Structure formats: structure tokens, C-alpha cells
Amino acid sequence: xxxxxxxxxxxxxxxxxxxxxxxxxxxxxxxxxxxxxxxxxxxxxxxxxxxxxxxxxxxxxxxxxxxxxxxxxxxxxxxxxxxxxxxxxxxxxxxxxxxxxxxxxxxxxxxxxxxxxxxxxxxxxxxxxxxxxxxxxxxxxxxxxxxxxxxxxxxxxxxxxxxxxxxxxxxxxxxxxxxxxxxxxxxxxxxxxxxxxxxxxxxxxxxxxxxxxxxxxxxxxxxxxxxxxxxxxxxxxxxxxxxxxxxxxxxxxxxxxxxxxxxxxxxxxxxxxxxxxxxxxxxxxxxxxxxxxxxxxxxxxxxxxxxxxxxxxxxxxxxxxxxxxxxxxxxxxxxxxxxxxxxxxxxxxxxxxxxxxxxxxxxxxxxxxxxxxxxxxxxxxxxxxxxxxxxxxxxxxxxxxxxxxxxxxxxxxxxxxxxxxxxxxxxxxxxxxxxxxxxxxxxxxxxxxxxxxxxxxxxxxxxxxxxxxxxxxxxxxxxxxxxxxxxxxxxxxxxxxxxxxxxxxxxxxxxxxxxxxxxxxxxxxxxxxxxxxxxxxxxxxxxxxxxxxxxxxxxxxxxxxxxxxxxxxxxxxxxxxxxxxxxxxxxxxxxxxxxxxxxxxxxxxxxxxxxxxxxxxxxxxxxxxxxxxxxxxxxxxxxxxxxxxxxxxxxxxxxxxxxxxxxxxxxxxxxxxxxxxxxxxxxxxxxxxxxxxxxxxxxxxxxxxxxxxxxxxxxxxxxxxxxxxxxxxxxxxxxxx
Length: 737
Ligand code: ATP
Ligand code: MG
Description:
Elements: H1 2-6, H2 10-16, E1 23-27, H3 33-46, E2 55-58, H4 62-75, H5 78-81, E3 88-90, H6 92-102, E4 114-116, H7 118-131, H8 141-153, H9 166-185, E5 187-189, H10 190-203, H11 205-214, E6 217-220, H12 228-237, E7 247-252, H13 267-275, E8 281-284, H14 292-302, E9 323-330, H15 331-347, E10 355-359, H16 365-374, E11 379-381, H17 391-404, H18 409-415, H19 425-438, H20 442-445, H21 451-471, H22 476-486, H23 489-494, H24 500-520, H25 524-527, H26 530-544, E12 557-561, E13 570-575, H27 592-606, E14 609-623, E15 626-629, H28 634-637, E16 644-646, E17 661-662, H29 669-672, E18 692-695, E19 699-707, E20 714-718, E21 724-728, H30 729-732, E22 735-736
Parallel strand pairs: 1-7, 1-8, 2-3, 2-6, 4-5, 6-7, 9-14, 9-16, 10-12, 10-13, 11-12, 13-14
Antiparallel strand pairs: 14-15, 15-17, 18-19, 18-22, 19-20, 20-21
Helix pairs in contact: 2-3, 3-4, 6-10, 7-8, 7-9, 8-10, 10-12, 14-27, 15-16, 17-18, 17-21, 17-26, 19-21, 22-24
The structure holds adenosine-5'-triphosphate (ATP) and magnesium ion.
């Protein structure tokens, strides 16, 4: 046991060994929060204070929970280590899924319910709007999706939504319709997983009591990013702090709250302190991760935020090397530089797996990937090209989902004519009408059809029925293999010139199934029911989306967005694309909250590095089919000069000195050429700052800034939902209005 506690500092030791009570550890990046949480679980078990079954632990990603379980198995003595698996550990979604599967009847769900990821959810909403003949210009599917999820995350079923106008009333009706559709199809979206299991616990007292008594300790990592409903869910299980419920141990960092845009509430920390009468807020201030310069830069950046609980970090390690800054001519140039630096790090003995390449938006990865690939450097995109979200995988999963649950209309619509089998839009319309008339799923409505639609769709139904029959006895990997052939997917991609990679991915799905079975352990009962196991596998696929590929064997450079880097650490970190509009993201710049959230994201990014931090930006960049000329990020300016070393000569186009812009479209050669810096002038062809204007593509907007003159005159326009854009007047054809 002394081994377990040997390397902790006094505050960490205090936190790990706290007697049973509600507690909050509030501490900055790299101060050992996750380590404290893991060690506390081990300590509680090892000292016999609780059995593994009595612990519920919440992590932010599936990867984090796998890593934590692996650590625990090594921390605990052999006998106990095996039991680490009986800890309920996972993300909120994973844990809710487990609860709903176990008590599906009480929750009003079939055992084999399917999970809709957010792309599936959007498809389901679009399909619903179409069936109901709703104008999707008036009710854009994405808005509706956002509305529904926000309501669910606030714990509101349709009847509980505040209706303040006709538009909202209509949206609430659509929310009701959407719920009915999901129930008919036996599918559950991410927000529903949470709300449904919350309601289950809230309404079913015996069940709630059971879990309240079972879980003695609930531990939550990354607490700052929990949303309201998740907090209420925790409160239910902990019996709101009354006797008999579990003890809640939360760790978090308000400076790393980066999901407020998705409803995360830092206020949960304050409420937790108050409602659970937390007398012990433990602060950890020593950082064990990064060299001093990196830490100083992080502290300097986050100090620009006003909305903070306030804390700072120090380290015993020396200052280390300066942060290296590179200004590239363009994005390709930046990628080449990154690759050269990586090659030199690897030559000096650094493992590729300890190098991370971070960027603000997924779209930025492509150029980096291209360069890495051309240079033969193994790399892995983590969370980006999501394995389970690739087209061919989604097709295969849709067949599997239909086997598990024929009423899943989203899956049905996806593959009914893929690979093509002559089922046209007309037949599907007839089918949808029938489904409406008979109030059934698409699948169940096929027998009601006559004529050609009845024949072709009947064949499809028979295909699925055959698959179901033929796979009833097969182990999961063979089941998947069978479906890949029987569905015609393999043959389809074989005949496709560019299908090789897709075929490899399909094979990888069989591996994923095999791994899943292995991870489940040799549970004879589960293995004896292949179709129930299939439903578990499909749930796993929906929950895992994307985290899969980053784990597999070979030593590879890791690419990911800053969001997915939360909680991780690497020897060397490249933070690319540090440009205004990119990072901070253009949608955030106008709002204080938005900008502060971007800054927290920057803080997360910087604090991922242990030894070396590289910061880069490009004078011009091709993104979304446009060439953009951006100023370098304000976050770079917030780093004290003494901490950085420029690898390139800073150009005259520093912040404020020169020229920043957002240009379009790239098809115009005049725009793609780098314009020369020009002095600001008021020669704007009759336009002025503050003026309302109209643009053919972006619609109405207002001019917020102007620069340059003559042929180079450019203005920045806020187009509301279309965002802030820099436009070259000579090209953009703005109309005053
Ligand atoms: P983040 O906010 O980024 O999630 P964190 O607070 O969870 O960070 P950890 O990831 O737990 O921090 O720890 C950061 C690093 O410091 C890890 O490599 C961890 O093993 C190491 N570490 C933590 N505490 C100690 C300690 N007392 N002695 C040595 N190393 C430590
Ligand atoms: Mg952590």
C-alpha cells in the first residue's frame, strides 16, 4: 500500500486518502487530478473500504476509461486487479447505456434498442420533416436537432418546454413527433440516453434505492465539463447528499471548461460545493507535467480571462527550452516544417507516439496528413476520420442494425438501395405513405405494398430475414463477416476502383468485433446469444465513434483537435494554425464568452506538452475551398516574449501592423494571389463602417471594419449566422441596403 501512496505530494495524499465525504479537487492542468482520482479508487479498494462493485467512476472519453482501468489493474494486487472490471467505469453515455440495457423494460425500451449518433440523428430528423411535409427552410434540420438536444439536456420533455411564440410551439410539436418516431423505431439518441436513464432513476424508487445502496463512492473526472442533466443524474445517485447515498468525489479545472457551447456548466462546481456542503475543496498547485516555460506561457494566456475561480501553477522543474514559433508562408509550408521538425525529433530519439499535432478544426488535418503520408511517417488521426463514421462502416453497421432491430428506419433508409438494387425514390415514397397509414416502421410496412414497390422491397426484406436466420448461431466476428458478403457490400467495393481502402476498413470491422468479444471476457452466457451480443457491439460502435484507431499498435504521430486532446499529455506538441479566425475560431470572436472559451481551449492545448511546444501559423491558408489571409492569433501575442524563440524572422505583417482578411472565392486568380500590404483608407466606394449590406451568398450583414484602398479595399462584414468575413470589395459585389 505504501507503494500506492509513495509518490504523492501532501495535498494529493490528502485528497487520495480523504475519509468518506463529499469532496472537490479544483486544480490546474497537469497537477495530478486524474492520477489522484485513479489512486483513490485503488486505495479505497485495497484498504477494504469498498468492493470494486461499489464504485462508479465517470471519465470524459472511452479512451480515458480504458487507460484508467488498465492503470488500476496494475496498481492493485493480483487478486484484486482482476476485479477492476467490475467497477462501473465509463463516460456518462456509456454508463447510461449500461443502465438502460440492464433495465430496458422499466425504461420502456426493447432490449435491442439502437443508438443514433449525431449524424444518424440529423438524418432521422430530415426524414421526419420530409414525411410531415415540413418546409426545411423554415425549420432547418440542424437547428431543430440543436433545439431538441438542448431541451433534453435541460431535462425537458415536450410538455415542459416554455412556449413563448408560434414558432416555438411548432418546434415543440416537431420534438413530439421526433420522440414518437424514435420510439417506433426503437432508437435512442445521445441526449436521450441521459434523459431516459435520469427519468428511470427518478421515477423508479426501488431501482434508485438499489443503486444508491450499491454505489458507495462516485468519482468524476473533468467535472467542469458536466452539463446540468449529468449533474442532476449524479445527485440522484448520491441521494443529494443525504445519508445512505454515495460519496461524491469530483475533480476538475474551471480553466479547462471547453464544452460550454454544448451546455456544460461550470456553475455545477459552485452548486456542488453548496448543495453537498463540501467543506473540503482541495487545491493542487504543483504541476508535474511541463517545463517552466510552457507553464508560464499557459498561466500568462489564461490570465486574460476574467471569468475564473482563480489559481495558478508552479513546477519544480527548470524552465526548459523556449517555445518555438514558426511563421509559414502558407499551409503547405507549415506542414513541411512540421514534418522536418518531427523527423529531427525522431532522429534525436523521441518516440513518434510521444509527438502530437494539434489543430482547432478537423478540416485542418488534411494538409498535415498529406505531408506526413508523403514523407512516410506513420500517423494516426484521433477522433477525426472516425472509423465508425466512415461511409462503408456505417453501411455495414446499418445491415447489422436491421438484423438486431428491423424497425430502425434510419438504418433501413441507409441501405435499402445500397448497393443499388433498383429501389427508386418512388417506391420509397409509396412505402413511407404506407408506414404513415399503418403507423408502423418502414420494414413492417413492406407487406402492405402491392405492385413493383411490393416486389422489390419484399426482396430486400427477405434478404434481411435470411441474414438474421443464417447468423443466429454464429459468433460475432463471423456474423459480421457473413453480413459483409450477404449484403453485397464487399462485392460492391471490390468492383470500385478506389474501394481498396474501404475493403480494408470492412475487414477492420471484423477485427473490431473480435476485440469487442475479447474485451467482454469469455462470458459464456453472452456468447450463447449472438444477436444480443450484436446489440452490445452496435452500442459500443456508436459510443466509441472515432476513438478506436488511435489505440492500435504501431508507434505513430498523433493528430487530433484540441478538444480531443483534453486530459492527454505528450513530450512534444505542435500547435498549428494559430491564426485569427481559426484559433480563436471566427464564430467566437464577437462574444466575450466565446472568446474566453477559445482561450481556455488554448490553455488546454498549451498544457498538453511536457518537454517541447511548437507554435505555428501561416500567412495564407486554403480552407473550405477558399484562400484565407489571416492575422496571427492574439493568443500568440499573449505569451511573454522572453518565453519564445522565433524559428523564422517575424514578418512585417505582425498583428495590427498589416493586413488581415478572409477572401473568397479562391476560383478568382486575383484573390488567390497574395495581395500587397496597404495602408488603411476610407476609399470604400460609398460604403462605411456600420452600414448594412447584402451579399449574394451570405445574405444581410453589417460592416464592422475596413482596410486598404483602391483595388485592395476590403471590409469585414458580420453576416450573423454566416459569421464574420473579410471581403475584397472589387470581387465581393456588396450592395448597400
Ligand atoms: P489535466 O488537467 O490535463 O487532465 P491532471 O491534473 O489530470 O491534468 P494528471 O494527468 O493526473 O494531471 O498528471 C499529469 C502528469 O503528472 C502525469 O504524467 C502524472 O503521472 C504526473 N504526476 C502527477 N502527480 C505526480 C507526483 N506526485 N509525482 C510525480 N508525477 C506526478
Ligand atoms: Mg486529467
